[in-house]
């Protein structure tokens, strides 16, 4: 039952993305498909599960499907109606003792196992912060900006798999969360964002610091709530965590008016979740017939390729076993890096716009594309009609809205990817599947040898790709790596070989600059080695433009004593935009230079012309730092950074003419791939 719950309760969440809010293309009430209830036989009694327990082999495919669906429904119904499994939690109040709504909220967080929140106080959320001080188990990390706090919450969730929590006040505090909510929505990050709101009687009056955050966030949250009755808080918070973590994960926003926070109540915590419609639209578990169809396609294929995405983050073990059983090569999306080891011989590394030549070649030549936990993003596919044009496409995803949204799938399965891969592996073992893709693997090995990843060897400066390679060597590839957005992000994806899941924190779908430092902060909170928590190296590989967007969090990592290492690849430009200017706009610079206008460091080579001075910025916040300009100084500087206890900033000066290669121009196909050139060439 537990296995079936994992396989099937998750997809249900897509149906409940909003009782009051809905994003049609991703689910909610407008799913685009409806699943029928199982047929009741024998007088309407549901006895399918009992039947198979007596004679599972005698069931037809239709009966097996009916049995699986019924077991799934029963497990989800049990999850909805059963008491909350917080057996160790003890309230600070007597059972019949009234308490404020804000204390009820904090107790709800404690019951969900929350021990860390990222919260910035304000007028409409002061009551919540007062209640947090009364908690003996929840720690608040005080970031210096609400966008910083929600990015930190994302980093925390991505590296732990837990539902993270961030809290902001009304008005500008709430709107400062908007970019993070959109980012978490696109990257499927489990999160509960709590906002204070003006008192109920003032809603709609344009009161001081009033914004309709529920309406603002309607299309960028999985679901959101405006709490108008304090007695609803326990149910709403339980639903919020359940919705955020199941199905396709995502952010859930809970907006709580200040007077609701102040209202006295005796809470009822073990109230059932009101998700009847959620169960009604429950997608079926992995169909045994579809799994057999996928294995049959593998048997016929000569050139199969696994196209693995962020949806496989909880199925990395099953993915590795699948590759071992089938011998298929694996290409990963930006969000999927680390779910399959980069060092494995079957790894083709990243595919897409800045993926390897061989990964994109394999997709172009494949006759079977096994798409696991992906959404056929435009940065992966380029020209859709040319993407995997020779392949039979298999698509497995938990979100029904993604099936067939961008690319038609010949074999589709809307189900949990972990359960689906486990089922596939079981079928493969029982059928004693014998892979026969030797010629295909030899072909890919030859292509990899002919088109290796490479960068220019220079002694007069530090090449950014080499800097990341050195970092990988010095950390032995074991760091949790965060990035901002831009060239440095792509170089990190290409050159910091990721062998472990939940070690890669980046903004994929939204591409939010300023993500790197606060997300590293969130990871450092989770892996600080204190109070029984494990210790891991956390490194933010950032660009100067991205770093500036949330540099205020230097103060947070200092005050909170967080061991965050920052390596800024500083080219004094918005590097990725410069690259596109070079390639497609005749190198015309349109506001992409970030330094002093009167003197550009790359021309003068004067240290005084490096702007801003990140080392002084770090030192002003109590963070140690140094700058590296010469190639021979880089490795010792990285070693010093890693050996220094506490936060450390390393400002690495790199040339602005370097391009991220390979590159497939937007809307292009594999035949348009670019592998040569930099900013010194004319295009």
Radius of gyration, whole Å: 26 Å
Which geometry do the CA atoms define? globular
Tell me the number of helical segments per DSSP (H or I, 4 or more residues long): 27
Mean pLDDT across all amino acids: 90
Q: Give the amount of beta strand, in percent.
A: 5-15%
Major sheet strand order: 3-2-4-5-7-6
Topology:
Layout: H1 2-12, H2 48-55, H3 61-81, E1 99-100, H4 101-111, E2 116-119, H5 126-133, E3 139-141, H6 146-160, E4 164-168, H7 172-175, H8 178-186, E5 191-197, H9 213-216, E6 223-226, H10 233-245, E7 251-257, H11 258-262, E8 264-265, H12 276-280, H13 288-300, E9 304-308, H14 316-326, E10 330-332, E11 347-350, H15 357-365, E12 368-372, H16 378-381, E13 392-397, E14 411-414, H17 417-430, H18 438-450, H19 464-475, E15 480-483, H20 487-495, E16 504-505, H21 516-526, E17 538-543, H22 544-549, H23 553-559, E18 564-570, H24 575-584, H25 601-604, H26 614-620, E19 624-628, H27 634-643, E20 648-653
Parallel strand pairs: 2-3, 2-4, 4-5, 5-7, 6-7, 9-10, 9-12, 10-11, 12-13, 13-14, 15-16, 15-17, 17-18, 18-20, 19-20
Antiparallel strand pairs: 1-8
